[in-house]
């Protein structure tokens, strides 16, 4: 388990001298989604929908599901199977037919199929490789993962707030006090904290209590894993602050990644998502994940390097910043910034290869659901940092967010 960070007194609760925070644009959405209602259908359609009873609709859904199931089971030709499977996945209906889809993919895999249609060839490769079949060159959509999503969403919020406190707002002394409080994980630790941190800390504790209540009694022990993840994270944030205050640049990219792949927060988010998955992820698997296996090491390396390429120019322009992996690469290899980015992109490719290797070789301690979830996280990170740091400069993904949550899907 983690050892506690150094303690600081809070006598007198004096207001320390703060550095000017980094300038970030305000939230594009504000409180929009707190009162947002999805668009309604035209009145005529609305009236028609309301005339149909709920019982009838439930019955109709079951009928249609079985009709689709017959179509799925009746598929035998490879092109037909590929088209059907990809259509179900894109519509988000594949979770209803997992057994049938697995049987169909097994047929595709065991069929000696050659076709001059590049679309079908690429589709076959994509579907088989995505589902773990060994052919040369999904986060969780299933409804029974709802608790996992709730836990993950709240953990994302906490990590974002912690990162901003340590990186932008708090003084070094305040950051160390918060790190000690999170290690203690007890209401008595509020005496260590300045006033503006206390409400956040109490809500942090309350949220963990709510997780214990949401998990069934024989699974509430899993919250201890979340607490351990945060203890480690604040220790790593504290070490990163020391680098910043000492103006230290790690001499090699390996030295840099030993810490920075952990402070990107991806390790904690991936592990947090498994806490609410019930029996699909056993205690032994959670224990294994805390040892930081190769799958998670490759994943966090990929996210850290992608983040640094996208954000280093903006971050280095500020007065208070950490040395990025790009600076360490330049120092280690005597390279220019451009050459460093090229070299780091090659390291990202290597990390992807390592992740896929782990995905295609599941074990009892690292089942396929774990590897698949990590890969999906990596895809999200790749999208967020593909061109710019879209996580920070969020107007770059505004249209995508709107299409997901606001605009109706036309069928």
Automatic annotation (TrEMBL):
A Pfam short name: Terpene_synth_C
Superkingdom of this protein's organism: Eukaryota
GO process terms (BP): defense response; terpenoid biosynthetic process
Domain (Terpene synthase metal-binding): residue spans on this chain: 135-354
Cellular component annotations (GO), alphabetically ordered: cytoplasm
MF annotations from Gene Ontology: magnesium ion binding; terpene synthase activity
Pathway: Secondary metabolite biosynthesis; terpenoid biosynthesis
InterPro entries referenced in this protein's UniProt entry, alphabetically: Isoprenoid_synthase_dom_sf (IPR008949), Terpene_synthase-like (IPR050148), Terpene_synthase_metal-bd (IPR005630), Terpenoid_cyclase/PrenylTrfase (IPR008930)
Segments of this protein annotated with the region Disordered: 1-21
Alphabetically ordered keywords of this record: Metal-binding
Similarity remark: Belongs to the terpene synthase family.
Name of the protein this chain belongs to: Terpene synthase metal-binding domain-containing protein
Organism: Oryza sativa subsp. indica (Rice)
Lineage: Eukaryota, Viridiplantae, Streptophyta, Embryophyta, Tracheophyta
């Amino acid at each position: 388990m983690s050892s506690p960070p150094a303690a600081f007194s809070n006598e007198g609760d004096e207001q320390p001298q703060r550095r000017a925070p980094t300038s970030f644009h305000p939230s594009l959405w504000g409180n929009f989604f707190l009162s947002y209602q999805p668009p309604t259908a035209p009145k005529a359609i609305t009236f028609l929908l309301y005339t149909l009873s709920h019982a009838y609709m439930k019955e109709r859904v079951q009928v249609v599901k079985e009709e689709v199931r017959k179509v799925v089971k009746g598929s035998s030709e490879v092109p037909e199977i590929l088209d059907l499977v990809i259509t179900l996945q894109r519509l988000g209906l594949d979770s209803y037919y997992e057994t049938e889809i697995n049987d169909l993919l097994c047929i595709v895999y065991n069929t000696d199929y050659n076709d001059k249609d590049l679309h079908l060839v690429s589709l076959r490769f994509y579907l088989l490789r995505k589902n773990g079949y060994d052919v040369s060159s999904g986060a969780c959509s299933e409804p029974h993962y709802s608790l996992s999503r709730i836990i993950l969403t709240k953990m994302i919020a906490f990590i974002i707030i912690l990162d901003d406190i340590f990186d932008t707002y708090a003084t070094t002394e305040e950051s160390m006090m918060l790190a000690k409080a999170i290690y203690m994980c007890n209401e008595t630790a509020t005496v260590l904290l300045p006033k503006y941190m206390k409400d956040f800390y109490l809500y942090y504790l309350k949220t963990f209590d709510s997780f214990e209540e949401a998990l069934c009694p024989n699974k509430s022990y899993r919250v201890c894993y979340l607490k351990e993840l945060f203890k480690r994270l604040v220790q790593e944030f504290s070490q990163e602050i020391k680098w910043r205050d000492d103006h230290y640049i790690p001499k090699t990219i390996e030295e840099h990644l030993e810490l920075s792949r952990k402070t990107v927060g991806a390790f904690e988010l991936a592990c947090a998502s498994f806490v609410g998955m019930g029996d699909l992820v056993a205690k032994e698997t959670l224990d294994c994940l805390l040892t930081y296996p190769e799958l998670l090491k490759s994943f966090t390396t990929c996210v850290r390097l992608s983040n640094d390429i996208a954000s280093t120019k903006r971050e280095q322009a500020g007065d208070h910043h950490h040395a990025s992996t790009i600076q360490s690469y330049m120092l280690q290899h005597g390279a220019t910034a451009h050459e460093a980015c090229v070299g780091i992109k090659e390291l990202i490719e290597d990390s992807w290869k390592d992740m896929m290797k782990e995905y295609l070789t599941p074990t009892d301690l690292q089942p396929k659901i774990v590897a698949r979830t990590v890969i999906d996280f990596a895809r999200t990170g790749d999208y967020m940092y593909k061109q710019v740091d879209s996580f920070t400069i969020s107007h770059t993904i505004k249209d995508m967010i709107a299409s997901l949550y606001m605009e109706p899907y036309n069928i």
